[in-house]
Structures are given as structure tokens and as C-alpha cells.
Design brief:
- This protein is of the alpha/beta class.
- It has 3 domains: 30-42 and 50-174, Rossmann fold (3-Layer(aba) Sandwich); 224-436, 3-Layer(aba) Sandwich (Rossmann fold), CATH 3.40.50; 441-544, ANL, C-terminal domain (GMP Synthetase, Chain A, domain 3, 2-Layer Sandwich).
- The chain has 14 helices and 27 strands.
- The strands form 7 sheets. Strands 4-3-12-11-13-14-15-16-17 form a 9-stranded mixed beta sheet, sandwiched between helices. Strands 18, 19, 20, 21 and 22 form a 5-stranded antiparallel beta sheet that branches.
- It is globular.
Amino acid sequence: MKPAELTIDRSTTPARLRYGGRFNSAGWYVDRHMAEGRGDKVAIEQAGVRITYGQLAHRVGQAGNALLGLGIAPGDRMLMVVKDCPEFFHFFWGAIKAGIVPVPVSYLMRARDLAFIIADSECRAVVYSPEFAAEVVPGLAAARTGARGLVLEAGDGVLDDVAAASPELEAAPARPEDIAFWLYSSGTTGRPKGVPHRHRDMPATCEHYAVGILGLGEDDRCYSAAKLFFAYGLGNAMTFPLWVGGTAILDARRPTPATTFETIETLRPTAYFGVPTLYAAQLQALDLAGTANVSGASGGPAGKGGPDLGSLRLCVSAGEALPPDLFRRWKSATGLDILDGIGSTEALHIFISNAPGDVKPGSTGRVVPGYEARILDEDGAEAGPGEAGQLEIRGDSTTPGYWNRPALEGRTIVDGWLRTGDQYVRDAEGWFNYQGRADDMIKVGGIWCSPFDIEARLMEHPSVLEAAVVGREDKHGLVKPEAHVVLTEPLKETVGAEPAADALAADLVAHCKEELPRYMYPRWIRFVAELPKTATGKIQRFRLRGGEEEVG
């Protein structure tokens, strides 16, 4: 039946969400679709697999009952180390419907990190895909908490319990403000942090961003290269399509240009969600194949032999700021804009974004209606247009606080404002321009400079695939920019690596000096095979310290 605990008024901007006293989000995201006639519609599609909304509701009920039958009680935490597959949906929503708190975590973690999260979360069980047993099983043993491992397979696994369970499950009583699930923030430094989210948080992101900005609807098919285990992917590939009655396109494989192009061609999504690193790799693949003009994408130029991206109407990017040159190259190759935005685990999804028909290359965009944003200078005063400072945001999807981190919570969440740790400048028209993480900003000659501006300029050079800039002290103890550069292809040598590398480094320095203020050019260029990143694609600049003699 259709739950009556929520009404949505879309006559205003932002839309107004009004909750009753009871609201279990599983009812709205899963059960509602039966009453609205979508029982036979495909909710999830993966290579060789289609799950209808009716089947989803059936299996969610079974999963919830199976978990309760295994002794996991309402209010208990349940870690999920699960690949992108229908079972992720079944156990996530089955837990929420049963009153259990699911906690998706990265399946890229090693046993040591999993042991920390198992102990930190005080979870009762860990549901995991069998592919990850080599890390999960020793992680459970090392945690020594008595948490139970539930492997997603038949036989000795939990799937037999699910198959035997009843699909009839009454949603556990919940209020909009009650905790529905947790995520763990990977961050760019330090230990992961538990980030609880309420039942009301998911509807806020879906209504304000997915519907209000992207205009997603029932006919959309959402494909996210970013995985379900973190906030960006959770919205893109699960809550957004389920909110509008659309279809989620899943691919459990590691996202590469080949796998993403194959998925787009075969499963025909309308909305594609990536990260800057992947867009850069996809463009490199197109360039190397000589098929930069791909076929049919929203009226874009048609090329011979390129992937068919004609189903796409939306391309979205988050995780790291999108360099303007990458935007322009993708537009030229596909005819599609990339809608850059910024979100966070603490806010659950994107709160500043470009929008269809309202795009500014190099800018993160404008505030998503339903959120507030402000920039504070070094003295804590609100910065004016053109003045840099730290970004703070406020909205209905932000976490009420961290788990077991009172000191961090006190520094990060103040009077409802979430301190993002990002440095921004806002112009007079309300566009927000990223300057870098606050702790990554570099003061050169007494002037603050943005590593992102230097990185964006480097990436305009045809030899550069990716770049990351950090501050480093020179022999006089003065901080200057140092660039770590991933090339589009290995250096071609005739006399040895050093002369060619020196020549290219000098060319990159000259390239930066042409457009950037003199003090901003990189004093050192280091060529690397790859940049260190978090599971969500954010560059870990703290790992890039060290270097060699100045150039240029």
C-alpha cells in the first residue's frame, strides 16, 4: 500500500516535504510502487538480470524477515560489504524496513580497516559478497566483537535463510528524524568516521537535487560508475531511480572506459554519473582509438567506430572539482555537458551544482534549492563576492552528528551549519568556484593560491591526463607549488628518460606561466604513474609530499 506519511508540494521551489508522525523510508522507496502500478516495471537491471518492482518488494520483505530470524534486532547495526548487485538493494531496504540499521562500507578495504569499522560501529553482523571473504573473514576475527558474518551465497550462506523467509513484513515504526542507516566517510586523512543519516535525509536529496536540478523522472535509467557503498553512488544508482519510479543500471565490475562504454551501449541509461578521473580516462580512450566524436549523444557529432552514447541525456560529475578543459573536451567529443557539483558523505549528496541549461565550465555551480551555503573568511566573518573562505552548508539531508567523535562533531557541525573543509569563492551571480581543500591551499609569497587553478591549467596541456598540486618548502624554507603529473602516454625516449622528462617539465612550466599569475607556476614537476586516491576518487594530496630540485 502507498504510505501516507509523506506529502510533496512541488508548486514551490524548493519542493516542500511534509511528514506525518511515522515515516519508515522503505515504505516510500519500495512498497509505494505497488500501489502506483509499477509492480511489473523493471526496477534494477544488470547484465543478464532484471528485477521488477514487485520482485524487489518481495525480496526486501524476505531479507528483512531473514535478518530478524537470525537474531539481528531492531536498532542493531549491520555492516554491508556488498558489490553493486540486486542483493545490495534487498538487504539495505530489508534492514531498514525491519528497523535494523544498515551500514554500507567500501569493499576495497583491507582486513585491518574492516576490523576497525566492525569494532567502531559495534555492529551485530556483516553481510558480504563471497568475493570479499579474504578480507572480511580475518577482519571479523581481528575485531573480536562477536559480530556474525553472513555471506551472500546459497548453502552455508544467508541466501537460504532469505529464500525460506516470508515476504510479508510490516515496516518497523519510525519517525522521520530516526536514524535509518550509516555511511563511513573515507575522507582524505585519518580514520573513517561513522556518519548516521535519518529517514528524512534521502527524500531531501532526491527531491531537491535528483528532481529539482536533474529533472529525473519515471522514464529515466540511472547508471553510476561510482559505487553504491558511498554517498554519491548510493544516491545515483539506488535512491534516485527508486524515488522517481525509474530504473537502476548496475555493473559490479571496476569502472574503466571499456566497461562503462559497454554498459552505456548495452543497457541504454539516460543519466550517467562519473568522476573527473574517469571522464579523463574515457576521453583518453576515445583519443587513442581515434573516435573522439562518438555517435548520437544528444545530437552530438557522430563518429565512426566510437561507442554509442545516444541514450544519454545527462552526465554528472562529483568527487573532485571538474577542470574546465575536461568539460570542454567532453562536450566536443559527445555533445553533452557534464554537470559538475559538490556533495559530501555528511550531506549525503550534492548541495551545489550546475544544472541542465545553466552550466559554467570551471565552476561548481549554484546552491541547490533546499540548501543554504555561506563562505567564511579567516576571521569567521561572511565573505563577500570574490573573497575566498571556507564553505559551510545547511540543509535537510545533513547528518545530525558523527558516531563516537564528539570533538570532531563540535568542530564540524556548528548551529546546524556543516563545515565542509573546502575553500571557495562566490561571484556576484551566485556561482561557486572551488579553490581546493582548506588544508591544501598554498600561500606563495604571502598570497593564497588554489592548487585547483594550477591543476586545471596543467590539464589543458595535451600531454597531461591528471595533475595534483601541493605545497612544498624550497631550500630557503619558503612554500612553493609542486605538481605531480600523470601523462596521457609514456614518454618516448631516444637518449634516455631524463632529457625527455626535463624537456617536458620545462614545457609544462612555460605552459603554466602563459596563463597563471607568475607566483602560481609549479616549481617542481614530478611524473607519476598514478595519483593516490580514496575509494570515492578524491586525490589524497597529503601522500604527495617530498620532491626534488626546482625547475623553471
